[in-house]
Amino acid sequence: MAQAYFLQGRFSETANTIAQARDAATNDAHGRTRSQLGLARSLRALGDQTGALAAAEAAVRAAKDSADVQKFRSLCVQFMGLHSSTFERLEILEHFYDSLFAGLPRIHSVIDVACGLNPLSLPWMPIAGSPAYYAYDIYKDLIDFIGNFVRLAGGQPHVEARDVLHTPPVVRADLAFVLKNVPCFDQIDRAATPLLLDRLDARYVVISFPRQSLGGTGRFLTEQHATRFAELVQGRKWAVSRMEYKTELVFLIDKTETRP
Ligand SMILES: C[S@@+](CC[C@H](N)C(=O)[O-])C[C@H]1O[C@@H](n2cnc3c(N)ncnc32)[C@H](O)[C@@H]1O
Predict the structure, then answer these.
(1) CB 240: neighbour CB atoms within 10 A?
(2) Domain boundaries in the chain?
(3) What pTM does this model have?
(4) Among residues 17, 98, 126, 127, which is most buried (max CB within 10 A)?
(5) Answer CATH for 2-254 from 3.40.50.150, 3.20.20.70, 3.30.70.1140, 3.40.50.970
(6) Is the CB of 85 under 6 A from ligand 1?
(7) Is 152 helix (H, G, I), strand (E, B) or coil?
(8) Separation CA 113–CA 102 (nearest Å)
(9) Residue 214 CA, closest ligand 1 atom number
(10) Helix axes of 69-80 and 15-26: crossing angle, nearest 10 degrees
(11) 163 CB less than 6 Å from ligand 1?
C-alpha cells in the first residue's frame, strides 16, 4: 500500500457516517455528553487509563491493515468525538480543512500546537504526499499515540510532550495550527500567546476560537474572541483573513503578506 494511501484516497465521507460516529461518541456510561468531559476522563471511559490509548492505537492499526478507508476514517471520527474540541469540529469537518487550505500553496509540513486529538483529522486535510507533522501537547501518553497515528495515516510524525507556552516549538513548517487554545492559554498567562505567535516559524498560522463556551451555556463568544484576536496581532503587520464556521471562529495569518 502506498504510504500516503489514506491521504490520497480521500473521498467524501457521508454525513450519515459522521452522524453515526458522533452519536456513538456522544454519551458515556452515565449519560453525560463526552463534549462535557475532559480528554483524560473520556479516554479512561474507554478502559483503564494506561490501556485506553493502546487499545485505541490497536484499533486504528487494525483499520489501516484492513485497507478499509471508510473504517479508518470512521474510527478517526469516533476518537475525535472523545475530546470536546474535536467533537465540536466534527459537524464542520467535511469542509473545514478544504476551505482553510483553499488558495494556499501546497502544504508539505504542519505544526500543531497543543494539538489534543486534532491530528486525527489529517485524512481530511488536503495535503498530498507524506507531510511532516510536528505535534505538541502537554500529555506524554497522548502525544505518543498521536505520533503512531500520524505514521499510520501516512505522515512523518515529529511529536513531543512540551509545554508550548513556556517553550514554543522552534521548527520551521509551512503552516501552524493554534486551534482553540487561546482561551485556555490566557487563563495561564495572557502575555504568552503573542510571543508564541511571533516565535512560530511558519508562513501561515491558523488560529481559532470556539464559538460557544465549553460549559454549554449557549453564550456565543464570537465578537469577544475577535476582539482578543485583534489584541494578539496588534502592532504586527501580518495579513489576516477571517472565516466563520458554525462551531469555530478562524483567523488565517500570512506572515509574509503585510497590511498597511
Ligand atoms: C482546548 S484543547 C484544543 C485541542 C486542539 N488544538 C483542537 O482544537 O482540537 C487544548 C489542548 O491544549 C493542551 N495544552 C494545554 N496547555 C498546554 C501547554 N501549556 N502546552 C502544551 N499543550 C497544552 C491540552 O492538553 C489540550 O489537548
Answers:
(1) 16
(2) 2-254
(3) 0.83
(4) 127
(5) 3.40.50.150
(6) yes
(7) helix
(8) 21
(9) 1
(10) 40
(11) yes
